Structures are given as structure tokens and as C-alpha cells.
Amino acid sequence: MDSDLETRIRQRAYQLWQNDPSPDGKADAHWETARRQIEAEGDSASHGAAPNVDQSADRESGERPVAEEKLQDVSVVSSSSGRTAKR
């Protein structure tokens, strides 16, 4: 596997790991999912690859970054009952 492809897969697997609510013991699954995603994207995605950023300080702090969309409180108003329900 070439170095650039492996780096892209590693970065994607790390993103998948960060967004997984229970990531322990899933390293192989994250790697395989990342590999399939990168391969499906083809060469066009290689130009927009994210830079390699050291995120070890985030990991060492014991806190896991949370995706912003998971923090939002989404309310839906039921048109038939007029009640508000949480998702």
C-alpha cells in the first residue's frame, strides 16, 4: 500500500473512531470502513485530503470530541397533534 493511501485511510479511520460512541475494540472495523470509503472516492478525493494534524493532545486530555450535530436539540412539531416531540 502506498504511503499516501495509507495516510488517508489512517486519517479517515481516526475520524470514524472519534465519531463512534463506543469505539473500543473496533480498530479493524474502522480501518476497513475507511479503506472502502477511500477506495470508493477514487483519485478525485486525493486532492482534497485533510492535512495530517497531530491530535494526540485531544486524546491525552481524556475528552473525546463530539460532533456538533450530536449536541443540537432537535424538536419536531407534530402537525396533527400540535405537540412537540424530541428526537
What does this structure look like?
The chain is 47% helix and 7% strand. With 87 residues, the protein is mainly alpha-helical. It has one domain. It has a two-stranded antiparallel sheet with strand order 1-2.
Fold topology:
Layout: H1 3-19, H2 27-41, H3 56-60, H4 68-71, E1 75-77, E2 84-86
Antiparallel strand pairs: 1-2
Which features characterize this protein?
mainly alpha, 87 residues, two-stranded antiparallel sheet
Radius of gyration: 18 Å
Form type = elongated
Number of extended strands = 2
Mean pLDDT: 73
Helix content: 40-55%
Strand order of the largest sheet: 1-2
Q: Helix count?
A: 4
Structure summary:
The protein has 87 residues and is mostly helical.
